[in-house]
């Protein structure tokens, strides 16, 4: 098992980023909570990781905090929740919001996430209630996303739509989620965060 990885940030196209570790490029899938905290391109990144081994692929998932990785590992133990859906849940809600949904039996908020139907939401609440990891002040701080990514404005919005589609949203819904977001000096990560916040309301 690969416990963590440290390397130079080479590319980031949510939900995938690539780290250069001594000349080897590691492709890593990560939730948006991790993308919000990535440094500038070319800088060093340290991620907590979880390796999923399938017959057709070995997929490495990365997280900016141990709390997010623990939440991911707890989620994939729930019947019917795979790594892809766990990543979507972590991208669509903060750890605090997810804790609230579970403790308040708020299936409506969970159903707003792509791929989460009524039965899955109910199963999450039932199975996660006693399994949730303790909340920690060390959860990722999403208030300081990377600025000045250098992307053209139209490109940033298009990349945000593509990222939302990769997270499970339909293309038409993803377009609607970002179309009314004022885009001045906003990075792709800014647009995605605002779109997800709007969807959660």
Q: Which architecture of the largest domain per CATH?
A: Orthogonal Bundle
Q: Counting H and I runs of at least 4 residues, what is the number of helices? A: 9
Task: Using the alpha-carbon principal axes, give the shape.
Answer: globular
> Structural class given helices, strands, pairing?
alpha+beta
Largest beta sheet, briefly?
5 strands, mixed, barrel
- CATH fold field value of the largest domain: DNA polymerase, domain 1
Strand portion:
15-25%
Specify Rg, calculated over alpha carbons.
16 Å
Order of helices and strands: EEEHEEHHHHHHHH
The count of DSSP E runs of length 2 or more, i.e. the number of strands, is: 5
CATH homology-level superfamily of the largest domain: 5' to 3' exonuclease, C-terminal subdomain
Tag the structure with descriptive keywords.
DNA polymerase, domain 1; 201 residues; alpha+beta; OB fold (Dihydrolipoamide Acetyltransferase, E2P); 9 helices; Helicase, Ruva Protein, domain 3
Structure description:
By secondary structure, the protein is of the alpha+beta class. It folds into three domains: 4-63, Nucleic acid-binding proteins (OB fold (Dihydrolipoamide Acetyltransferase, E2P)); 66-128, DNA polymerase, domain 1, CATH 1.10.150; 153-200, Ubiquitin-associated (UBA) domain (Helicase, Ruva Protein, domain 3, Orthogonal Bundle), CATH 1.10.8. The protein is 42% helix and 19% strand. The protein is built from nine helices and five strands; from the N terminus they run E-E-E-H-E-E-H-H-H-H-H-H-H-H. The protein has helices spanning 32-35, 66-75, 83-92, 95-103, 107-111, 118-128, 153-166, 171-179, 188-200, and strands at 4-13, 16-21, 24-29, 44-53, 58-63. Strands 1-2-3-5-4 form a five-stranded mixed barrel. Strand 1 (4-13) and strand 2 (16-21) form a beta hairpin. Helix 2 packs across helix 3, helix 7 crosses helix 8 and helix 7 (153-166) crosses helix 9 (188-200). The longest helix has 14 residues, at 153-166. It is globular. 34% of the residues are buried.
């Amino acid at each position: 098992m690969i416990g963590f990885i440290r390397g130079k940030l080479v590319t980031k196209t949510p939900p995938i980023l690539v780290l250069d570790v001594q000349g080897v490029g590691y492709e890593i899938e990560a939730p948006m909570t991790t993308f919000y905290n990535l440094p500038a391109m070319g800088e060093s990144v340290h991620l907590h990781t979880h390796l999923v081994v399938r017959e057709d692929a070995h997929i490495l998932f990365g997280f900016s905090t141990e709390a997010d990785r623990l939440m991911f590992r707890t989620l994939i133990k729930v019947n019917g929740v795979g790594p892809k859906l766990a990543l979507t849940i972590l991208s669509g809600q903060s750890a605090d919001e997810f804790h609230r949904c579970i403790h308040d039996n708020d299936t409506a908020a969970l159903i707003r996430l792509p791929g989460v139907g009524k039965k899955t939401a109910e199963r999450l609440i039932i199975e996660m209630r006693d399994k949730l990891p303790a909340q920690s002040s060390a959860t990722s701080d999403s208030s300081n996303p990377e600025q000045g990514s250098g992307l053209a404005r139209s490109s940033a919005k298009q990349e945000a739509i593509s990222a939302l589609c990769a997270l499970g949203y339909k293309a038409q819904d993803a377009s609607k989620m970002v179309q009314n977001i004022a885009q001045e000096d906003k990075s792709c990560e800014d647009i995605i965060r605002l779109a997800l916040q709007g969807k959660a309301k």
